[in-house]
């Protein structure tokens, strides 16, 4: 299996997802958090290698062995209801790819990757899951936003807006004890509720991605800061 980094976005959101899984950084199992670094270091290349094969549903027995290798460390996590989220996302991703709906497959596939932050948090004995839910819903709507912006995608902006409105409702409800976290939703709301017009050219996709990456970093930084402030205040 040749490992050549092509999907930089996968590694980017993978690393950010690991950081999110550590929030609030205290009360977690430090040894497990450190052990997770090499696990993620080989999990992400495996995901990158398998992604194009999953998109066309051409997986052989060697690929299945890689999947098994990637899942072995997670047999040591404590079973929790939140584990259902990445499982469901993975299944739905396969369904969309099976039905040749690449756009939704990509959106749900990206969301599945960031939902691994829940699995990693469980591995670290971190049960403060609110930042992970914020991150998952933010990335899901963000992926829809990008798909909407692509000139040749037939996605109405109302889908982006509806997704974020629903996300805001969910996040508000789970943040009753940590209302400071809602501050992190201000910037994404201005972007997702008013997504603007589609890009005029595919050449504009790369700059859009770079701009989005900077916003992702800011969002995670805010999650870190506001989570700490919320818990210290609480």
Automatic annotation (TrEMBL):
<feature type="transmembrane region" description="Helical">
    <location>
        <begin position="103"/>
        <end position="123"/>
    </location>
</feature>
<protein>
    <submittedName>
        <fullName>Uncharacterized protein</fullName>
    </submittedName>
</protein>
<keyword id="KW-1133">Transmembrane helix</keyword>
<keyword id="KW-0812">Transmembrane</keyword>
<feature type="transmembrane region" description="Helical">
    <location>
        <begin position="64"/>
        <end position="97"/>
    </location>
</feature>
<keyword id="KW-0472">Membrane</keyword>
<feature type="transmembrane region" description="Helical">
    <location>
        <begin position="9"/>
        <end position="27"/>
    </location>
</feature>
<feature type="transmembrane region" description="Helical">
    <location>
        <begin position="217"/>
        <end position="233"/>
    </location>
</feature>
<feature type="transmembrane region" description="Helical">
    <location>
        <begin position="135"/>
        <end position="152"/>
    </location>
</feature>
<feature type="transmembrane region" description="Helical">
    <location>
        <begin position="164"/>
        <end position="186"/>
    </location>
</feature>
